[in-house]
């Protein structure tokens, strides 16, 4: 990319990522590449139902994002970092063992950080915080994998049924939890994704969190109830904070946490239907979330405005963008006929079937909040009357092609979900997206969302973005690290002073050995220091006393 023209470089990027999607679709399950790496058995490449689905969607959305980048005037260097990010993510989901997966997992953190940093400005500090979060998360996952190896004797996925229970599983859950945005570990999402170039945000919205869901499913293939409840909490917390936001990309970033919460809940429930629903939602979420960031990017680029408070009336000025946004909003909200309706319904149905009523109702409440969020977004950006009219250049051809291609898939998979079911791991026998009960649930959530927004519209406009845990974590981390650095620096300074003083005294003794003991001896045997000059009686007595003391000390050391 850096050495080619923009047109040729981006064309090559589209072909490479699109080729991954086609190739992953056609690759036969069971294909693998075993090697010996650092003396360990490893599988650098493995095709199964999980990795095949991830490869198809990662490749397809990568191609759409590269086309969008080209049309959004992204430089070759930025797209090169983005393609490195895509490549390392693909490496992680096609790994056949924990060692290979962690290797690509860490490279994914590096390449995504470089993608953020490339934009400069506010993105640099956000990128540092992002790197620290993912460095800590990756370290915890690595510790879990090493501990797992000591218990199992192999890094291969096939050697055990997930990560060994106990401390390794806990470390893996928290380490992967950073990537998926567990509550309390999620603030890097709204902090980072609104900062870089709008095209970079499209890539960032896709790969890290979804690779995390994939890792969670590998670590806990049979589910885990605590993880299921954490997923439900993510869905609700994310949507509440999203409702409070006016910055478009910050709103969308909180909704990543919320929607990934559905996937985490599905993985935690662990049944065949729940697992299929989780990965169906991975596939669908990548489509509509990338589309939402594309539409927000067009609005930001054309108006030079990030806040919904200062927008309005863009439906007429940007009709294709408004249409694409409407499709994406209905998809993420789970409206019947759109892809999110299918996958959300599978997860809630799985929770209901397992009598996990707490998770079921929390996810339904999050669904109402999602409708409210995107009614708010759509109203303030595209419908609300604006003083005067926007005189804007419409989205360029490449942006329209990328947005409409993704939007078409959102509709197609919503109307014909069997095309997606064919790719899913787990069972879809009980999915039944078009039952009367499921359809009624979808329409009821939509109605509650409309009523909820109408009732809360004015209060929401007066409330700020809310105080998240980063309001405590970031100052605590900053002052804590500053205190630690100062403490360590002061300790080193004290040690340095002691070492210098010891060296000074040693040099003094080496230069005048007798002078060094003259003072203490005068106190011991009495008399002035002048009386202890060499050759005097007192000096002889003092020397004898010193020799006796040295012999006694040596004897004592020998006995000990």
From TrEMBL:
One term under GO cellular component: plasma membrane
Q: Name one Pfam family in it.
A: Proton_antipo_M
Query: Example GO molecular function term?
Result: oxidoreductase activity
User: What InterPro entries does the database record attribute to this sequence?
Assistant: ComplexI-like_HydComp, ND/Mrp_TM
Annotated membrane topology: Multi-pass membrane protein
Q: In what residue span(s) does the NADH:quinone oxidoreductase/Mrp antiporter transmembrane domain sit? A: 95-362
Keywords for the protein's UniProt record, in alphabetical order = Cell membrane, Membrane, Oxidoreductase, Transmembrane, Transmembrane helix
Where does the signal sequence lie? none
Indicate the transmembrane segments per the record.
7-29, 49-68, 80-96, 131-150, 162-185, 197-217, 223-244, 260-280, 286-303, 315-338, 358-380, 401-424, 436-456, 539-559
Compartments it resides in = Cell membrane
Q: What is its main location?
A: membrane
This chain belongs to the protein called: Na(+)/H(+) antiporter subunit D
Q: Which organism is it from?
A: Halobellus rarus
